[in-house]
Each structure stands twice: as structure tokens, then as C-alpha cells.
Specification:
Radius of gyration: 13 Å
Number of domains: 1
Structural class: mainly beta
Shape: globular
Largest sheet: 4 strands, mixed
Distance between the termini: 16 Å
Strand content: over 45%
Number of helices: 1
Order of helices and strands: EEHEE
Strand order of the largest sheet: 1-2-4-3
Length: about 70
Amino acid sequence: GRDGTVFVTIEDEYGDVQIILWGDVFARYSRELDSQVIEVNGTVSKWDGTTNVVVTSLRAIRVGVRMPRAHDWH
């Protein structure tokens, strides 16, 4: 959580990607993660066969339509 690293999988109709939030970034943007649509800014990281985005900032986007519910895999 706030002191460690948070891993979140986000998806759209094209696929999914894991985003990584360091503790300070998570503390700053944790509320936005509750939104159904977010814009993520960061650096693409490819390591050991995986591709992730290390988040530098994100923002909630309001949309005028009802979105499908998110999947909670845990």
C-alpha cells in the first residue's frame, strides 16, 4: 500500500496491462483508482518477458455512459 509497491491490472476491449504504482504515487492517486475509466501516464517497462507501465500520474475520466462492471480477480 502506502509504503510499498501496488500492482493493478487494467483492461479495455483490446486487452489488459499491469500498472505499477510506487508508494508515493499510490498515496497521491489512490482515489482515482476507484473510477471506471482512468488515463494513465508513465513509463513502459519490459522485464523478464512481461510488459508493465510504471505510473507517474493518472486521472479519472468521467464518461456519459454506463460502463460494464470491472472484474475483481481476487
